[in-house]
Amino acid sequence: MIIHPIPPLYNEESELLILGSFPSVKSREQAFFYGHPQNRFWKVLAAVFETPTPTSIQEKKEFLLKNKVALWDVIASCEIEGSADSTIKNACANDLTPILENSRIQKIFVNGSTAKKYYDRYLLCQTGIEAILLPSTSPANAAWSLERLIAHWKIALLN
Apex CA 15: angle with CA 33 and CA 133, to 5°? Predict the structure, then answer.
């Protein structure tokens, strides 16, 4: 069983919450979200907000908070082989109450279908907020080009 090692990132100004499924091996090593260089999350979000792509963890934190984005994952602990979402077993969900009670979250987005599946199973009843499915920024989602991801995420996040 692996326990999620990264705390949620948000503040009282956060309006959008983006939830992944569970941190990859690289993200767990770096102790921050979307740490694998092939993951397109940071490129997509930077393009959505029309800013340079943040590179350091500090730049990423400042970028998210400046743009009123909160970030965390659906799963608090699970069994997983490497970073493959398809191998997740015995998942336990994170409690979103602290984020929702201490911010201005208007919308919840999930990065990929695995995050959506576990959100709907464990968290929808807790939050009462339907999560909006975004196409995964994972390199495993090769069907979506960077340009197509950016276009889709931009429409979803900025409307």
Answer: 60
Q: Is 67 assigned a catalytic role?
A: no
86: left (phi over 0), alpha (psi -120 to 50) or beta: alpha
Reported as a single tens digit per residue, the pLDDT across 89-130 is 999 999 999 999 999 999 999 999 999 999 999 999 999 999
User: Can you name the residues that pair with 2 across neighbouring β-strands?
Assistant: 78
- Beta bridge partners, 108, equal 17
- Name the domain count of the chain: 1
Per annotation, catalytic residue among 11, 39, 90, 141: 39
Q: Which residues pair with 73 in a beta bridge?
A: 20
CATH number (domain holding residue 23): 3.40.470.10
Residue 39 near residue 138 (C-beta atoms within 8 A):
yes
Domain extent at residue 153: 2-158
